[in-house]
Every structure is written in C-alpha cells, then in structure tokens.
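Researcher: Please translate sequence to structure tokens.
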Amino acid sequence: MGTPLFAVEDLHVSVAGTEILRGVDLSLLAGEVHALMGPNGSGKSTLANTLLGNPDYEVTRGRILFRGDDVTAWPTDVRAKAGMFLAFQYPEEIPGVSVVQFLRQALSARKGVDLSVLELRLAIMEWMKRLDMDPSFGDRYLNEGFSGGEKKRNEILQMAILEPDVAILDETDSGLDVDALKVVARGVQEVRTDRPELGVLLITHYQRILRYLEPDAVHVLVDGRVVESGGPELAQRLEKEGFESWRST
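Model: Translation complete:
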C-alpha cells in the first residue's frame, strides 16, 4: 500500500481549553479523493484550521503526517511551501492586491523561483479558460466584490497554479448554486487530470458535490471523532438517513 501521502493520527485538538477533536484518524494515498462529512458542530472547521496550522487550535495529542514527515508543529507558510494547499470556507478579501500579483508571490514562495508576470499570466489565462472564468478576473483585487462562486473558482485557480501535492477543500460547496457547484467540481477534476498524484480531502456538510466529484472514501465525523469510514455508498446513506444514526455511536 505504501506510505500515505497525508495522514492524521489520533488527533486531539483544543480551542481555548475546550477539547473539540477527540482522536481523529484518517489517511489518504496519492491520487485519492476523500470526503470528510459531518453535521454542524462536529469539528470539521476545527480540523481544517488545525491542518492549516492556525495557532489558535492546540494539538494536545496525536500528529499530522505529510509524505511521512511529522508536520504537526510546522507553521502555515512552511506547510504551503512543502505542497499542502487549503481552500477556505470564507476566503479573505485582500484590497489592493490583484489575483495575478497574489499568485505570483505565492508561486515564488512555493517553487523558489521568480516567474515573470508574463509567464504567469499565460498560465493563468489558460486555466481561466478551463475554469470558465472571465479573462479580466486576474486583474481584480483578490476576492474583493467576488460572488460566492467566483471566490470558490478563484480557490481552484490557485490550486491549479500552485501545483500542491495535497489539497484540503474546506466546505468548498457551501453557498453555491448547482451551476457554480458543477464548475467547482469540474475544476477540481481538471486539476486532477493534470496532476493525477494530487490527493484531495474534501470537508463538507452536504452530499451533493459528491455527485460530481466521486470520492474514493468517505469519513463521518461526529462529536470530534471519525465514527465510520467507507466508500461512496456511505455518502448516499448519509443523504437518506442524516447524521442522527451516528450520534449515539
């Protein structure tokens, strides 16, 4: 089976002294898509923030592994440079910094090379076409005045350009209509076509994005623990039954 690309082992996390995650275990291999599903308050956003390296989230036990390295104590920027990508549920606006400028800085940090604006613009234009994005998008200030769908497409654009090894997509489907949802799911597939080794962890409340982006495995997170893991059929069961049947387990 080989070394997992990405793994979380017995992860316990506290926020302001309160334990939220109580021993989370999951692992994914290169090229796999895993969905982590849970109701509100289950610990999904705590896990996403912990994987990002948010210092407000304290790991009290367990560890996070990336390519076999223990990255639990690595700061956010070091994780990103190493090839971990996290798409936020609520991306921040950065007035005065265009999409192209932001990507140039991020890519320079990730690859250790300073790309010319022209080189980067050509790559961005190609990806924008593939993601059905307006070509003028690259000159707009990052997330300023973007619709929900545009913010999410921009996250997928970043994922395409930065070429990470693992992508953690936190509630990427929240607040999107069906058309925007299809575009985002197709965008993730486009990136996977170019980078078949990319591992994707999709953290979501809803089953609907999984109709367009079929996972290799589904994990159910309830009360800070993964209470069940299985194949795509587990997501279908969730849609029929909801999370109630797992709450007492």
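Researcher: Any highlights?
Model: The chain has eight helices and twelve strands.
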